[in-house]
């Protein structure tokens, strides 16, 4: 076997005092779950969906200690599963099975499963143990780490939720082999984000290792996921409740959320973030705060992973309305995460809407 096809297991610690927890990243970790999670309780509820279960549920079940009582709860596949209705159905299942306060919730799936399962864990009997086994690249580098859990309300995404940290995160990169190219690319958009906001050397590594990452070579995956998780762990440890540095993880997201909300049937989160990141970079280049060379490197790296770098055509008023609903807006003022160079970004108040609109308009589809 080539060196590129082997990767050793990494252990990253999220430092949150008594709520600190490990992230394990490696190959074939699902069969090793019992050893990685030695304090699993007697009652375990696995939350997953049929798409993920088909590939990985049997391995997870076989890896759990034989004496445990294990129930499996299936969500529907898709963002609509993050609903009050499916939340209620999991609660019913836990109560029907007489699960007590010592049970554990195990999330096996992408961000949808992880977000709902985390909120279930945060609230069942005022909080029970929670373990993340993320199976999409986006969940592995972003949603499974940091303790943001939520479900959606008809009035908006993630409106009901809690900060609730898992006890451990187990990232088995083999799970990515069954992921669609589109879902894989969406995860890469978030990986690239970490390079832009915090780590120029990592960004350069991504440029140099594009081909092996795109081919999902194990060593490249373990490195990319580990570095992303290290950066996220550092920011979460410094600012668990997103009052400062953690907000930088929202690079491209204010623009991206507007695209997602307007075009939810055609655009995935990672794709919208990619286009949003290019708009943020263009805005800074126009203000002479980001070099043209850095702007081009950002655009080219996203494009290399076949991510969109142009926004859909939407009316200015739609953009403005959607962006005003961003969680970072304070007293009606936009606050945007803006890169000043590859490896550094800042959260800035922005009052010059015409300049923001100029960046959006310059990068909307018809202007290509
Ligand atoms: N909590 C956070 O901090 C945070 C951060 C970012 C995103 N999110 C949330 O994450 C969600 C998006 O997550 P996502 O992109 O993982 O979407 P997802 O969970 O819908 O997964 C995408 C698709 O891949 C399938 N899938 C999952 N694992 C697979 C595998 N190994 N092989 C084949 N198919 C697989 C899923 O069934 C689904 O169809 C959104 O709801 C978003 O709000 C949360
Ligand atoms: Zn994101």
Automatic annotation (TrEMBL):
Pathway noted in the entry: Metabolic intermediate biosynthesis; chorismate biosynthesis; chorismate from D-erythrose 4-phosphate and phosphoenolpyruvate: step 2/7
Which species?
Pseudidiomarina sediminum
What catalytic reaction does the record list? 7-phospho-2-dehydro-3-deoxy-D-arabino-heptonate = 3-dehydroquinate + phosphate
Identify the EC number(s). 4.2.3.4
GO MF term set: 3-dehydroquinate synthase activity; metal ion binding; nucleotide binding
Task: State the protein's name.
Answer: 3-dehydroquinate synthase
| A Gene Ontology biological process term | amino acid biosynthetic process
Q: Where is the 3-dehydroquinate synthase C-terminal domain?
A: 187-329
Sites binding NAD(+) sit at: 77-82, 111-115, 135-136, 148, 157, 175-178
What this chain does, per the entry, is described as: Catalyzes the conversion of 3-deoxy-D-arabino-heptulosonate 7-phosphate (DAHP) to dehydroquinate (DHQ).
List keywords of the entry alphabetically: Amino-acid biosynthesis, Aromatic amino acid biosynthesis, Cobalt, Cytoplasm, Lyase, Metal-binding, NAD, Nucleotide-binding, Zinc
